[in-house]
Specification:
The complex is a heterodimer. Chain A is mostly helical. Chain A has 21 helices and two strands. Classes of the chains: A mainly alpha, B mainly alpha. At the A-B interface, α5, α6 and α7 of A face α13, α16, α17 and α19 of B.
């Protein structure tokens, strides 16, 4: 157990929340930006105690406060290896997002920063909540600010894109709420740590897995539920795209790891081949579509679908290496794609176009921009020495351990990534200059400042992945070994026919002869 | 007789009498009761101070318990907000104001009596008392023909359903030989053994379904909201529904899962949610939209009633309060932005964030609460309803309810979309909004948020009420 002497996670959630309220009382736009930047830097400082995380299987920085006693809903926060880096990434992105929209956002500045702060707060909440209801509250609470970010500050098609985003994600997660309610009734609590210790019948796992997987698959997004993503990415303002790519998509994969695998282990194994197939479809489909794009942002958006496919592939091969790779890839995709969206934002400020043809041949005139562009492009195609290489190799290694054919099918995805990213880079760097104007300056100081941390992380994780892996691997071992134990206890093995699986009941229930009695308020009636 | 038990009702009656006296004494020179908001706020305080009261009056037909006291607070709160909302109603002549508020107060008084009625005939009388004054209120909208049409619809529907309900009451009385709810608790309610009672109870409940605008008794609802003035609609849409919910909560202590009546309730609930939400999708008039939305909310409340547990009853009780608050908040914004009391269409909301950023935020909070998005009260209420209904034989209803959220989001989001992302038409007239009015809206929105973030104290009250009902 580690403890910083004060509630670290709560402070990370409530600082942006308090700051967003304080914004109401500030009038000058410049001061709003400065204030939010300071809050962002404070948030990053508050994250520092999390580096005291001691690699181990359990939860750390735990906080528990009774919240709604009548329903046993608690305010329960903690981090472990699965969530640690996601919380850090969310905090780091706040000041960078403020910086990258310093000149990009010209209207309704106060509301914009209000949304950014709320987003940060909700995202930290999702990654640290250990109560099912609390998790759902943060999960849904982040929809409104994200919707507003796209709908108010977005591009010309923003209305369509924002509504599509909202409808898809909300419709996906409605059944998650039903699953949460079902877990509470059958498991007797909303606490995820307690629920993780229980074994549920296969039939129950089967349905709850489907309900949860739908919510998470929309968020990831997995083929064929991905169509909201390109629309949202293209229309969102730069900072919105950065948060969307770097944090929001990770909520889906995090949900799989935190909820699907431990709560429905048998169903996860049962559905794993299907999930692997969908992941590979996402990788190939995303890559192929990206190859044909004319719009830079759309290209990167489709590449996200492919990259997230690697993450879900890594999760559902259910091996230590695969899941390690998946978590690392979640972080890497956040860094790399986030940075790419920042770059697209800053070039858009100059050319006012996202088309490739309007942004060609910048190599000679904007060398510093091209340095970063090249770096993040290489990272995106998993070039050795960059962060994504480590993650992708681990995922592929994990896949080959389980099924050679799945591995072979995923390999072309990596090649496609090289094809579309290099094609884009070739055009942007060496294409025929079409609309370049002399007044386009190379990167200014502010732009250097927000790109440097990302570039540093690309190299750091690329060359020294050891420390990060040491932080996450014990938690993964815990998740995978509990899964295996629970499946053994249930008597489930992979080759069982479905009809037989459906008969499986946890031993405790059989011993009682019927459904296990759970004490719930009001259930004792009559 | 213990007057202490009926303090909230007595206070409300006092207010009504004072209004009557003012109306008679001042006659044509009447400029309306300026003192009423203060009195209404005191009324809430009086009701809240009697939360713990317990007792029975008048040969056990009038029961003062945790449930009735909870609802009396909610009703007086609803009355108070409506009074503040309707202070300067543009479509109401100044000399009619005192009479208007007297009717309003009388209706709220009837609903308070309804909350305590523990016997079917008393229930019926209280229901009529609350309805009759509403019949007179609805046409009061200048010389608007639609308001008269709405009033006629409301009366005709109301009269027919009341007749049906009375007919059902006679069946229940004939077959079970008692009209006391306590007495009905121990009787058998199965179609095989006592078909007359089951039919009778269903017909009797129909009267309250009508008040609640549950499918298929909902046809009056959007028309009446559309026809009557914005301020009256705010009242009709919220407070009388509380009365219906309290009666249904009391009566459903008779019900348990698997009974025919319960199954009928569940099916009506599912239909109500789906029909209400689907129809709301195509509405252009905001009041019609809210009318259909209230049809779907009536369905959600049923979730708590079919499970037959204390948790379910308390969830329904809690949801009624939440429903009252979020709808009043939404109607409050509509009443403020309506130019000269005209109806508000979706396009009238365009550019609200520029005209009044405060009201736009209040509207957004109430719309997201109506969807049931966290961290608003709408989410807390819905979560309790869903959690109470699971595993009591109506899991399919829970699934229908959550899927309905996905339909509902579209039209509620439309309200926010128009207010925030559409640009305003420069030529359109704008209603004057004072900062005090925005502040009242802000308080309402803050209540909606607060009840979502910290529902525990209020829910505990509702839970005590629910537990007390079930032996």
């Amino acid at each position: 157990m580690t403890d910083a002497g004060y509630p670290v996670l709560s402070s990370l959630i409530f600082l942006p929340l308090a700051a967003s309220v304080a914004l109401f009382f500030i009038r000058q736009d410049g001061f709003v930006r400065g204030f939010t930047l300071v809050v962002g830097i404070l948030e990053c400082l508050l994250v520092l105690p999390l580096f005291g995380y001691v690699p181990g299987g359990g939860y750390q920085f735990e906080e528990t406060v009774a919240w709604i006693p009548a329903w046993d809903i608690t305010y329960h926060l903690a981090v472990d290896g699965l969530s640690l880096f996601m919380v850090m990434l969310t905090a780091v992105l706040l000041p960078l997002c403020v910086l990258c929209s310093w000149t990009y956002i010209g209207k309704r500045i106060k509301e914009f920063h209000f949304c950014l702060l709320l987003m940060t707060s909700a995202c930290v909440g999702v990654f640290s909540a250990l109560d099912f209801v609390l998790f759902y509250i943060f999960w849904e609470a982040m929809l409104v600010p994200m919707y507003l970010l796209i709908a108010v500050w977005g591009g010309p098609e923003r209305k369509y894109a924002s509504i599509k985003f909202f409808l898809y994600t909300l419709a996906g997660s409605t059944l998650l709420l039903a699953a949460i309610v079902a877990f509470r009734t059958v498991g007797g609590t909303f606490d995820i740590t307690v629920l993780t210790g229980k074994t549920f019948s296969f039939q129950f796992q089967f349905w709850t897995f489907l309900a949860m997987a739908l919510a998470f698959a929309v968020k990831v997004p997995m083929f064929p539920l991905h169509t909201w993503l390109p629309a949202a990415h293209v229309q969102a303002p730069s900072a919105g795209s950065v948060i969307l790519a770097a944090v929001l998509l990770k909520m889906g994969t995090y949900g799989f790891l935190r909820l699907c695998l431990p709560l429905a282990p048998a169903a996860s194994v049962y559905f794993a081949p299907m999930m692997i197939a969908i992941s590979i479809a996402s990788i190939l489909y995303g890559g192929l579509i990206a190859l044909g794009q004319k719009d830079i942002k759309k290209l990167v958006a489709y590449s996200s679908v492919a990259h997230m496919g690697f993450v879900t592939l890594g999760i559902f091969v259910l091996t230590q290496r695969g899941v390690e790779g998946a978590i690392l890839q979640m972080l890497n995709h956040g860094i790399t794609t986030g940075a790419l969206f920042m770059l697209i934002g800053l070039i858009y400020e100059r050319s006012h176009s996202r088309e490739i043809v309007d942004n060609q041949g910048l190599g000679k005139c904007m060398p510093a921009f091209l340095f970063f562009w090249g770096l993040f492009s290489l990272s995106s195609l998993a070039f050795p020495g960059t962060n994504s290489f480590v993650g992708e190799v681990l995922v592929l290694a994990g896949t080959f351990e389980v099924n050679m054919w799945a591995g072979f099918l995923a390999i072309p995805g990596a090649m496609l990534a090289a094809a579309y990213m290099l094609r884009l880079m070739q055009k942007v760097a060496w294409g025929e200059p079409s609309s370049y104007k002399k007044k386009w300056s190379d990167l200014n100081g502010r732009e250097w400042i927000y790109l440097m941390p990302m570039a540093f992380l690309v190299f750091y994780i690329g060359f020294v992945p050891g420390p990060a892996l040491r932080m996450i691997s014990p938690s993964i071992t815990t998740v995978l070994s509990t899964m295996e134990q629970k499946n053994q206890a249930l008597g489930y093995h992979q080759d069982m026919p479905l009809a037989e699986c459906m008969q499986l009941e946890p031993a405790a229930r059989i011993a009682d002869g019927a459904a296990s009695p759970v004490s719930l308020p009001g259930k004792e009636r009559l | 007789m213990n007057f202490d038990l009926v303090m909230p009702e007595l206070f409300q009656l006092l207010v009504v009498v004072a209004l009557f006296v003012q109306s008679v004494v001042r006659g044509r020179d009447d400029t309306g009761p300026r003192w009423l908001p203060v009195a209404a706020i005191i009324g809430v305080a009086v009701a809240a101070s009697k939360l713990g009261a317990q007792g029975v009056l008048f040969e056990d037909v009038y029961r003062v318990d945790a449930l009735s006291q909870f609802f009396k607070v909610a009703i007086s709160l609803g009355f108070c907000v409506t009074v503040i909302n309707a202070q300067n109603q543009p479509t109401l002549e100044t000399q009619k104001r005192t009479d208007y508020f007297m009717m309003l107060g009388l209706s709220a008084w009837g609903l308070m009596l309804l909350a305590s009625a523990a016997e079917l005939i008393t229930l019926y009388l209280a229901l009529e008392l609350s309805s009759y004054s509403l019949y007179a209120l609805i046409p009061l909208r200048g010389n608007d023909r639609r308001a008269s049409e709405a009033a006629i619809k409301y009366i005709l529907f109301g009269a027919v359903v009341t007749a049906v309900s009375l007919y059902g009451l006679s069946y229940v009385m004939a077959s079970q030989h008692t009209t006391y709810i306590q007495g009905l608790l121990g009787k058998t309610w199965s179609m095989a053994e006592n078909p007359m009672a089951v039919v009778g109870l269903t017909l009797f409940l129909a009267g309250f379904f009508y008040k609640l605008a549950l499918f298929p008794f909902h046809f009056w609802c959007p028309d009446v909201y559309e026809g009557t003035s914005n301020e009256t609609a705010a009242y009709v849409a919220t407070v009388p529904k509380l009365g219906a919910v309290v009666v249904l909560v009391r009566l459903s202590s008779v019900l348990s899962p698997g009974m025919e009546v319960t199954n009928i309730l569940a099916i009506l609930a599912a239909l109500s949610m789906t029909v209400g939400n689907l129809t709301a999708l195509v509405q252009k008039d905001v009041k019609r939209l809210l009318g259909y939305s209230s049809v779907s909310h009536a369905g959600y409340v049923m979730l708590g009633l079919v499970s037959g547990t204390a948790a379910g009853l308390s969830a329904a009780t809690f949801y009624a309060l939440v429903y009252l608050l979020m709808n009043l908040t939404c109607f409050y914004v509509i009443s403020r932005i309506a130019v000269g009391g005209a109806n508000v269409t979706l396009t009238d909301l365009n550019g609200l964030y520029k005209k009044s950023p405060g009201l736009a935020l209040v509207l957004a909070v109430s719309a997201f609460a109506l969807v049931g998005l966290p961290p608003t009260a709408g989410f807390a209420g819905k979560l309790f309803l869903l959690a109470s209904a699971w595993d009591h034989g109506y899991n399919w209803l829970v699934i229908v309810a959550v899927l309905n959220t996905a339909i509902a989001i579209y039209y509620y989001l439309n309200l926010v979309r128009h207010a925030y992302t559409e640009e305003v038409d420069a030529a359109a007239p704008v209603a004057a909004i004072s900062s005090g009015q925005v502040a009242v809206g802000g308080i309402l929105a803050a209540c909606v948020l607060l009840l979502g973030v910290l529902p525990a104290p209020i829910y505990d009250l509702a839970f005590t009420a629910g537990k007390a009902l079930l032996p």
